[in-house]
Specification:
CATH superfamily of the largest domain: Bira Bifunctional Protein, Domain 2
Number of strands: 25
CATH topology of the largest domain: BirA Bifunctional Protein, domain 2
Radius of gyration: 26 Å
Number of helices: 16
Oligomer: single chain
Strand order of the largest sheet: 3-7-8-14-11-10-9-22-25-21-20
Strand content: 25-35%
């Protein structure tokens, strides 16, 4: 890694990079502060998140601060997802942060699933509350209490709502973005006349909203399918999931869509008078994804030098680094500002005009932050009517004439977006393995990781024993089931159900 850095500085030297700023040695130290991705992936992840100024720890155990660069990334991610949610007919709302204990307890299975993680408010100021208030672990209970008031007739349905809020779950083990006590998320909640409508809704969200967004905007390929009874959302009839493979071979649940059936409707007495004049319970769904997707971006696309951000969500798509000397500083800055003004019409662009830092140091910092394109402009470039462009994904550099700059930038950003997805998909496909032998299964999980495609008999007992013995769980039952049959990977019984196993975050 250090050798590649030194080679990189050969380019920097041509422009007098270390004149009047930090030394090349210090520039190299900038990247050496990151742990090796290959040797210590967990530490590499934390180092990149903090060094790229996405987030940091706070004095409150398990809570993080999302720094401006990280929040800018989240805002762009929100925009793409929010647009898709609204295009499918949903409207945004907001529901309370606090949920009375009596409401939370109405759906028994739901409460049991969340009870260990609930944070409770017991006092308002110095006065003890008559009833404890849960700090929102999820919003089904409070939303259902209002649906029971709003829904009277079939004419009141469907209800298609979404909200962007914070969530609190008292996690035992936390890691920036991946699992924190408080996190940000989007949660959709809908109510329908029939089971068919609710089922159609959950699958629409899974494919038209989540999969489309994660693969097209975040450049992360996913496997979709249904969760087992053991792994489904507490209180749901069915849970559908999107599973993404991280660079360390573990899987991250990228989003879920739940058909809640009538469990909550019966618990909260959400009834409507149908067209046939019969009173019926509504059918409900809920679905959500979170800021853990930022963690997914880091782990799927990042490398030894830091982040690689897809252009569609990158807070800064192009960073302009002027190569400044005392004699030509004014002219170079004016040219950089002119280029920035032109590019800002269509792209998210910034100029790094900081004094006291070499171009080489700036190159490394913006590579760390994952900016897709770097634009260099110096006196030699100006004399030739060109700029230098450097891609973050491949680190290729090229000279581009000014008159072709906007066109070239558009093409490069589109290509970077596509290239990141292609690379991630290739990695996913190369790390899906098939086996019918349990001993081989255990070796793959321990040594190679990734996903294992195999048969499962449907027994909860087999599922639990595999997880206990290997720490691998069934990530999903894919929709596409092959016609062939096999034997359960654990008990050997005949089975026609294919599943994906993996260790997960």
């Amino acid at each position: 890694m250090v050798k590649s850095l030194i080679n990189n500085y050969k380019d920097v030297a041509r422009q007098g990079a270390d004149k009047g700023g930090t030394s090349v040695e210090k520039d190299i130290e900038f990247v050496k502060e990151i742990a090796s991705k290959e040797k210590n992936f967990p530490q590499w992840y934390v180092d990149v998140v903090r060094k790229a100024e996405l987030a940091d720890y706070t004095t409150i155990k398990g809570c993080m601060v999302i720094r401006p660069y990280g929040y800018g990334l989240w805002e762009n991610m929100q925009a793409g997802l929010d647009r898709r949610i609204k295009e499918t007919g949903h409207k945004n709302a907001y529901f309370p942060l606090f949920i009375p204990e009596s409401l939370l307890k109405k759906e028994a299975e739901h409460v049991e699933g969340f009870a260990p993680e609930v944070a409770w408010v017991t006092h308002g100021g110095s006065q003890k509350l008559e009833e404890r208030l849960a700090v929102r672990p999820t919003s089904e209970a409070v939303i259902c209490s209002l649906y029971s008031k709003w829904v009277k007739s079939w004419r009141d349905l469907p209800i298609l709502l979404n909200q962007w809020v914070n969530i609190v779950r008292w996690e035992k083990v936390t890691r920036l973005f991946l699992r924190t006590t408080e996190f940000l998320w989007q949660e959709g909640h809908t109510a329908h006349k029939s089971e068919q409508e609710a089922e159609k809704e959950t699958l629409k969200i899974l494919h038209q909203v989540y999969r489309d967004y994660i693969e097209k905007d975040l450049a992360i390929p996913v496997i979709v399918g249904r969760k087992t009874e053991k792994e489904k959302f507490a209180g749901a009839l069915h849970t559908y999931t999107l599973e993404a493979l991280m660079a360390d071979g573990k899987v991250l649940q990228a989003g879920t869509s739940h058909n809640l059936g009538q469990n909550f409707a019966k618990a909260f007495n959400i009834k409507f008078l149908d067209e046939d004049q019969k009173e019926k319970y509504v059918w409900q769904t809920s679905w959500g994804t979170t800021t853990r997707l930022i963690g997914a971006l880091v782990m799927v696309h990042g490398d030894e030098r830091g982040l690689k951000l897809p252009p569609k969500v990158a807070p800064v798509q192009i960073i302009i680094v002027p190569i400044m000397f005392d004699k030509t500083k004014k002219e170079v800055l004016e040219k950089a500002e002119s280029i920035c003004t032109i590019l800002k019409k269509d792209f998210r662009v910034e100029i790094d005009t900081r004094d006291g830092y070499t171009p080489g140091w700036k190159f490394n910092e913006w590579e760390m932050r994952g900016v897709p394109l770097r634009l260099e402009i110096g006196p030699k470039d100006m004399a030739q009517g060109q700029v230098m462009l450097a891609r973050r994904d491949t680190r290729e550099k090229m000279a581009v004439k000014e008159e072709k700059l906007a066109e070239t930038v558009k093409e490069l950003l589109d290509n970077i977006q596509e290239n990141l997805f292609t690379r991630a998909k290739k990695f996913l496909e190369e790390n899906i393995r098939e086996t019918s032998d349990y001993n081989e299964f255990k070796k793959i999980i321990e040594k190679q990781r990734g996903l294992i495609k195999t048969y499962w008999c449907g027994s909860k007992d087999c599922e639990e024993k595999i997880k206990e013995e290997t720490k691998a769980s069934i990530r999903c039952i894919p929709f596409e089931q092959e016609k062939a049959s096999g034997k359960c990977i654990y008990c050997g019984k005949e089975s026609s159900t294919l599943v994906y196993f993996a260790r997960a975050y």
